[in-house]
Amino acid sequence: MLPVKLDHLQRLTDDTGLLEHAFGKIPRRKEGYSTDDNARALWLCIEWMRYAKRTNADEAIPLLCSLADKYLEFLIWVQGEDGRFHNNVFYNRTFEPEVPSDDCQGRTLWALAVASLDHPDERRIPTIRKVCQRGFALTSALQFPRGMAHTLSAAATLLTRMDEAQGDDVFVDWAKRELPQVVQHFAEHLCQLYATNQTPQWHWFEPTMTYANGVLPWALFGAYQVLGDEQIRSIAETSLAFLIERMTPGGVVRPIGNRGWAGPNHTSVWDQQPLEVMKLALASAKAFEVTGEVHYQAVLKQCVAWFYGENDAGQPLADPDDGGCCDGINEDGLNPNQGAESTLSYLLTEAIYHNALVEGGHSHGNHVDDAQLDAAKTRISRV
């Protein structure tokens, strides 16, 4: 049995894919679909299938496989012949006009890379790998750091786990030939961004911390696993430490607010987004995997606790009864809408946390005492 419910995720999912927004708990059809969310949803299913396989929660796998099929169908549908993924789709299944999104391309490649390694049904893996390989054809066109970071992480994960793809000679040969250059190029680019923008008081890749900040150190930890370059590891550790410092004042997670972002002399408090917490959890889990330092698991615990009321509002965003999650925190309280991004961010944070305990705890012998977190979840479930 999974430690989370997937009812709200199912509510947001129809025969086309995952709807983007909700009015309260009710899907808003007029807002349509985004590839960003469908890629995250595929990744979510794979993460929980990994957990289910390791903990013998086999009864959850059929539902997760069924949902994963819908999200994968969506990703195949929106991919152009050149490998580009179109991001925004109207409810009537026509594509919205848009400027191509590097972030969307990178997020989708990450989800496909993970699915190509961890999907439990071997019959689906050849298709996933073909779609993934075609998407990598556009890596040279990427210009923005977060799209690069997701693509770097996808390439690094494929390379570090390529032994699991043995027998698929075409895919293995392609990965070994093409992906080391992707990792090297994007790692160098992120390190150069850091060198350009960091100061003694500002250990960051850009003049301003904006959104999805955790993906930048996360990607460099993955690059270090491939390249073994200690400078890359140092930048990853230093930048993540700086992000944790900015996002945990007083020991409680406070996401960088979307209403003004953060600079050397200010940090926006409001319009806190669940996505930011999930990305911090993702980076911390990767840092724990690479370093074995237990304090990263403590950050993971704080990220999960944020969803259950350890936050500036003092209220839970997550609804354990159906797995939904409020869209954010403002000065007047919670945004009660429970759209795809926030719900996925909550469910992914839980998955990242539990997989870090299952995998990282075994490999490093470290474990965070989560009795307090379990107690918080119990209190919420009784409300």
TrEMBL record:
GO MF terms held by the record: transferase activity
Superkingdom of origin: Bacteria
GO biological process: carbohydrate metabolic process
Keywords attached to this entry: Transferase
Protein name per Swiss-Prot or TrEMBL: Glycosyl transferase
